[in-house]
């Protein structure tokens, strides 16, 4: 199967999800600096989700360039990724409203972890779809960085749910920063 159609569909869905994120932002109660500052958690949650989705999209964009065609397995794994990604606006709006809730932060962490698991599975599938040496080497590097990334997110989610809920979001931010630094150093 040609990869371009799935890539275009995924780009469109992710763009829609990112757009919905901004539409979910609460408006300030008044046109004042204080009213905007009162929404700092909302803006932080939005920025974190947007950053994570942008990092995911750029990673997928790079992966699509490595392969010539894909299988139904990769297509269905991509649908799973889009399913979990579509939960970001909902999870982000909950975090904006209930930032210190263990349940809400745990839910957000699970959405991010599930999305990352789908990415790991997609990279494994892409390696099977195009077993050229360069593709295998690239997919392995990315999967290793994503395994570290998921470890950071899982640790942040578990510690956050058990002790201090905002640690879930902090763990997700730390994982996103790790991925960006790893890319800059050529790890991904």
Describe the structure.
By secondary structure, this protein is mostly helical. It is built from eight helices and no strands. The protein has one domain. The chain has helices at 3-23, 33-37, 40-66, 72-86, 88-97, 102-129, 133-162, 166-184. Helix 4 runs antiparallel to helix 6. The longest helix has 30 residues, at 133-162. It starts with a helix and ends with a helix.
Query: Which series of helices and strands comes N to C?
Result: HHHHHHHH
Shape: globular
Biggest sheet details: none
List unreliable stretches of 5+ residues. Answer: none
How many β-strand stretches?
A: 0
Number of domains: 1
Q: Portion of residues in helices? A: over 70%
Distance between the termini: 25 Å
Q: What percent of residues are in strands?
A: under 5%
Give the SSE map:
Blueprint: H1 3-23, H2 33-37, H3 40-66, H4 72-86, H5 88-97, H6 102-129, H7 133-162, H8 166-184
């Amino acid at each position: 199967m040609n990869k371009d159609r799935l890539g275009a569909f995924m780009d469109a869905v992710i763009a829609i999800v990112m757009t919905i994120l901004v539409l979910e932002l609460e408006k300030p109660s008044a046109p004042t600096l204080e009213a905007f500052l009162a929404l700092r958690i909302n803006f932080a949650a939005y920025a974190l989700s947007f950053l994570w989705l942008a990092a995911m999209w750029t990673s997928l964009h790079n992966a699509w360039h490595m392969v010539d065609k894909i299988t139904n397995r990769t297509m269905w794994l991509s649908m799973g990724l889009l399913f979990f990604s579509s939960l970001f606006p909902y999870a982000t709006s909950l975090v904006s409203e209930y930032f210190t809730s263990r349940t809400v932060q745990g839910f957000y962490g699970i959405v991010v972890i599930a999305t990352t698991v789908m990415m790991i599975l997609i990279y494994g599938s892409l390696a099977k779809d195009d077993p050229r040496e360069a593709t295998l080497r690239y997919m392995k590097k990315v999967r290793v960085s994503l395994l570290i990334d998921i470890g950071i997110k899982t640790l942040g989610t578990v510690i956050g749910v058990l002790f201090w809920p905002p640690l879930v979001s902090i763990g997700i931010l730390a994982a996103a920063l790790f991925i960006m630094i790893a890319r800059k150093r050529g790890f991904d």
